[in-house]
Amino acid sequence: MSDIKAARGPAANSWLMMTKTLSYAMRNVPRYTSYPTAPHFHDGVSADVYVDWLQSIGPQDTLSLYLHVPYCREICHYCGCHTKATRKDAPLKAYADTMCRELELTAAHLQKAGPVKHIHWGGGTPSLLPRQSLVELTGLMRVLFDFDPDLEHAIELDPRLVTQELADTLVQVGINRASLGVQDFDPDVQKAIGRVQPYEVVEQTTGYLRKAGLDALNFDLMYGLPGQSEQSILDTVEKTLFLNPGRIALFGYAHVPWMRKHQRLIDETSLPSAAERLAMADLARSELLKAGYVAIGLDHFARPDDSMAVALNDGSLKRNFQGYTTDQGEQLIGFGVSSIGKLSKGFVQNLPDVGNWQRSIEAGKLPVSKGLPLSIDDRLRGRIIEELMTNYACDLDEVCSAYHTGIHHLQSSMDALDELAADGLVQINRKQNNSTVVRVTDEGRPYVRLAAAAFDAYLADSQAAGKARHSAAV
């Protein structure tokens, strides 16, 4: 009998760990592109408060600018972005004109600010803006702000809408990095998500951009989409590797139809299970690593010579609303509908609808909807979460010391890590200098958001109150 037990022991342990792993993968936690997360913003942050925050920025503070363009030609079923469909150029021109005014209003309160180190255009599809509008907006930014000589100027693109003329225009206005929304190359998956773009289209777009001199490219891929399989993921990765982008983002599809009603167009019965999602993510990751890409945090990969891989190695990697980034701007300022900025004193978010946003700016008022002042505890926990998300490790004593707080302040968070530690997903070590270091193990890296969640002081209360619903951890 003891021999039978011994024989069954390893298999039973393996089955138990697999079950535990799936349980972790299915837990719902934030993506931690900010801390505190956006559901905790409130209307106590007004335009006047934002003006005070902007005016406190000094010459030692470098800037990062985010410009949100909430328009697409059509809405993809899987999309989780704040955007709307338009077939006309008139709304785009009017939007760009208002954004010019918003840039001027904001810059008037930034007379003492340092140079701009990073610009990112997101959406939506920002390249839908008419050529003249792109030229005017980028030219105005050069007049209003000082640009760092090593400025990274990035834009998100829909490969179906890129022409050689557009590629040339992007380079002419100073854009030096582009991110292509690829998602998956399988035709059946593309039909299921409402985004049909054959491989040849992406290949052609890549050629246009490189011919124009824009070679710093990122491909966005997704797993967990309806109808996906390990074979379709493998095929997508192989085709992506052939096109050789410098960076690849591998996102898990977040099915949140309660937030994005158009996701109801997706047949939920065709979505992969938690086990299938995990297998797809593991397979894609393995293939990218075999191809020589460096794993960057939770879901990014980069060639070893890319600046993101360099930032990982030298400890300067950051995480913000665009995900993992090399952005070193100390103050992130958002422009456009629903955009979010992060300043030293707190978060601020713009009005979410175009009409009210435009009317506010036309009245000479910054279009603030809500925000959140940052407390000492918010800053401390935010730094811990960012270090875990970017470097998979954090010296808790060092962070606490920086904020003049004892590590006892984090005891409940340490207790919350016990389960992950027991399953070998995190380690809690005391170093020779008596500091406490939390380290996410190699096995625990897919679940790093769970380790970060242990330090989230808002999460338990918000989940209990039903204030926020989040996507699966993997």
Please render the helix and strand layout as text.
Elements: H1 2-26, H2 47-55, E1 63-69, E2 71-72, E3 84-85, H3 90-107, E4 116-123, H4 131-144, E5 147-157, H5 164-172, E6 177-183, H6 187-193, H7 199-212, E7 217-223, H8 230-243, E8 247-252, H9 274-290, E9 294-296, E10 300-302, H10 307-314, E11 318-320, E12 323-325, E13 331-335, E14 340-343, E15 346-350, H11 354-362, E16 368-373, H12 376-391, E17 393-395, H13 396-402, H14 411-416, H15 418-422, E18 426-430, E19 436-440, H16 448-453, H17 459-465
Parallel strand pairs: 1-4, 1-13, 2-3, 4-5, 5-6, 6-7, 7-8
Antiparallel strand pairs: 8-10, 9-10, 11-12, 14-15, 15-16, 17-19, 18-19
The biggest sheet, with number of strands, parallel, antiparallel or mixed sense and barrel status, is: 9 strands, mixed
The count of strands amounts to: 19
What is the average per-residue confidence, as pLDDT, rounded to a whole number?
A: 91
- H/I helix tally: 17
Give an account of the 3D structure:
This protein starts with a helix and ends in a 9-residue tail after the last helix. The chain is an alpha/beta fold and about 475 residues long. It has a nine-stranded mixed β-sheet with strand order 9-10-8-7-6-5-4-1-13, sandwiched between helices. A three-stranded antiparallel β-sheet has the order 14-15-16, with helices on one face. Helix 3 (about 90-105) packs parallel to helix 4, helix 5 runs parallel beside helix 7 (about 200-210) and helix 8 runs parallel beside helix 9. The protein is built from 17 helices and 19 strands. Mean pLDDT is about 90; it is low at about 1-15. The longest helix has 25 residues, at about 1-25.
